[in-house]
Amino acid sequence: MLGIFVGAVFISSFKKVVTDKINTSSEQLINAQEAEIAGFIGNLSIASKLLINSTTIQTNLKERQRGDFPSQGGVVNEIISVKGAYPYITSIYIYDMKGERWG
After folding, report:
1. For residues 86 and 44, is the Cβ–Cβ distance under 8 A?
2. 99 pLDDT exceeds 90?
């Protein structure tokens, strides 16, 4: 009878250790994924700032606002440059003050 009791206590303790390890591993995985997502969002913010602060893009947007239709070659090059630096970015859209979309 003592052997069954000791066995039950061992199994119960073993289950608790395994459950704790699983919970710890799951928590670590979730924390790592949260950090990775935060990194992606941070990089997207940087990419957005690079584009919005681009002299080429700002000049083109201002010319377009005046009714001119500037060459978009420089804008396209800026977009390609950012997409090259951040390969997980699949689309980039730039909107002017009239709500017209570029990209």
Report:
1. yes
2. no
